[in-house]
Amino acid sequence: MRLYTTSQGIAKAIDDETLALLDLPYADIGALLTEDPELKSLASAGVIGTLPLSDAQVLAPILRPSKIICMSANYHSHLDDEVAGVLKMLNPDSGDEEIQTLKETPTFFGVPSSAICGPTDPIRLPAIAPNQVDYEVEVAVVIGKGGKDLPIDQAWKHIAGLTLSNDVSARDLQGRAMRTHFFELGHAKGLDTFKPLGPCLVTRDEFSLPLDLAIETKVNGEVRQSARTSGMVHSVESSISQVSRYFTLFPGDVILTGSPSGVGFFQDKYLKSGDVVEMSAEGIGKIRNEVVHE
Hints:
There is one protein chain. It is built from 7 helices and 18 strands. The chain has 2 domains: 54 residues, no CATH class; 226 residues, Fumarylacetoacetate hydrolase, domain 2. By secondary structure, it is an alpha+beta fold. It starts with a strand and ends with a strand.
């Protein structure tokens, strides 16, 4: 099932072009999950109207989760081809050791929920750091039934569904975070509009494991990233399990699962005002965000 948060309420897709507005008293899918983590109420929810998807104002499916967690360096292509080079540059003696650690243990960081914006909202170049803003296509997991210390073989059952995100970063702020103790990755990756999300939540029954979806980024029509989720170092289930060892997961929490190679930092191709970033994930859909000045 494909579920949308719209300005008129929660809707489900009837087909690729039509939405059915549901009679549910929730502003977004996150609020629905808080009350109904397994989405059982959808079976009996009445339909109060239909509208073309093209006419709907589609919002981020989850507007204000209790937390957003981002997996770090979680694709072999990104880790081996790009991150390894940076680590070698920063510390030639420990690069190999750090890469091996990243392969053995999923790593992650948190960003504020205020970073979320919708699938067609503008990405705003922040006045504090406008010159090295970057993109990363990522499949995002939305938690249904929450929990703590989840075993890997049970983690998938705690997922409500999947959506798509752009893990936008201010790379200059990220560099400071990596070099000093005065900044965190959240400074670089949690600014307003830095987590476009959408266009919908696709319930977990629509996918099979191991997850193998095509994902892609285009900037002004140029393909920048193209990969499959089977290229992850740590599976979705492993990532959820690892995160739950540290934090209790609540319904509606969002976990970004990492990005493949091709990000702008390694090509010296940063986003600028007027750029259009289009991202897609097989079985989920597309988001399209124009870049503007704050």
